[in-house]
From TrEMBL:
Cited InterPro entries: Na/Ala_symport (IPR001463)
Protein family membership: Belongs to the alanine or glycine:cation symporter (AGCS) (TC 2.A.25) family.
A Pfam family the protein falls into: Na_Ala_symp
Stated name of the protein: Alanine:cation symporter family protein
Subcellular location, record wording: Cell membrane
Organism of derivation: Absicoccus porci
GO molecular function: amino acid:sodium symporter activity
PROSITE patterns: NA_ALANINE_SYMP (PS00873)
Cross-referenced PANTHER family: AGSS FAMILY TRANSPORTER, SODIUM-ALANINE (PTHR30330), AMINO-ACID CARRIER PROTEIN ALST (PTHR30330:SF1)
Topology of the protein relative to the lipid bilayer: Multi-pass membrane protein
GO CC terms of this entry: plasma membrane
Transmembrane residue ranges: 20-43, 161-181, 193-212, 224-243, 255-275, 315-338, 358-381, 402-419, 425-442
Amino acid sequence: MAFVQFIYNFLWGDLITISLPHFHVGLSLLVLILIPAGIFFTIRTRFLPIRHFKDMIQITMEKKDQEAHAISGLEGLIVSTATRVGMGNLVGVVAAISAGGAGAVFWMWLTAIVGSSTAFVEATLAQLYHERDPLYGGYRGGPAYYIHAFFTRKTKKKKSIIAIVFAFSGLLCWFGISQVVGNSVSSAFENAFHIPPIYTTVILVALAACIVLRKNMTVKVLDVIVPIMACFYFGLTIYVMVRNITSLPSVIHEIFVQAFGLKQMVAGGFGAVLMNGVKRGLFSNEAGSGSAPCASATSHVSHPVKSGMLQSLSVFIDTIVICTCTAMIMLTAPHAVINGLQGMDLLQSAMSYHFGQVGVIFIAIVLWLFSFSTFIGILYYARSNIAYIFGDRWMPQTIYKVLALSQLFIGGLATYTFVWDLGDIGIGLMTIFNMIVLIPMSKEAIASLKEYEEQTNKERVPSMQEVFENESV
């Protein structure tokens, strides 16, 4: 336990502290890695999330290529969004606002823009280095595969130690998350409906087993769940915003004032505002951790860059849309209602204010949708890592699924922070090993982006004004 706690603090704790006259900022190892890398990728892609946002939307509307067993780019987006949109969008945002105030929301937004570029690079590389999947059909890939390519180009070895460690870290992370999901769902239903955890857990595990133990059921189920849960939660937020439309200007004003406020600096709270927004934004969108590329590698698109753009859009959906929904639900509630509250008590009080006692039921349903889709999604991710380590065999695939289902069951009945910490350590190690190669290999993603832009510019039909100007010249 002491060793696990040491590794956890090394990855997630404040590695260095920057002290300024009126405040201090604690920086964890992962923040020190992800933020500079995200800024680097944003500059290298020439602010791709902003320049190509219209293209991202258009790509989601493209028809699916009829290749057998391959999923479309849109389905890859849905799978990655299913895992990104989870507890972090509720508990993470609540924690950020509880500790850093409304200003933390702004820094979450900014982190999403930076993270979008990182997501683009890792997803594009996953597409460039994906391979055929003889077990499930279609394709497989992810960081383990492009890490393998990076370290074995000269040696031509069958396996890379770094790629194996990354794959194991991913399996460790998703093993821990399985228990978190079970606990979150059973607790939410117990609070909302007074259902004993054992009943909720048995039904949850049975439903999950019916999906994950069938060969290609995961994507079909997520195609239904993810749009429903996103639209449901977004609809709740729109209702809240319309009902409280007169207070929206003051909420937006509060977010920006507290993000840069002199009051926070003088009071020494600016560091908390900044770092809580940044950390929660990174934890929520998972950009750079190497999880989502496992989904983008399985999709079949006409150009690798399209998969990268879709994953960039997924970060936007996760943080700019869903996290903002949670923030607006809380911040539009009167200060007297949420003053002094923290964690889920804060969110539940805000929901009770907006919807009465029905608000608690809404939160339970949203938690179920978010958590259940996360569990299904992470087992979809695990396929590629298991195949890289153990080869193309059904036995390791099935054993891992059964172990994950057992953790889902255990988590529904009791919480073991040891397993939760293992999950956090797993995602931290994934991020480190992923980023080791992501920066040097980013030139390949940038080259692919340039190629894509050249192709689209050639295909684009010039407007009448452009034709007229060319003739004039």
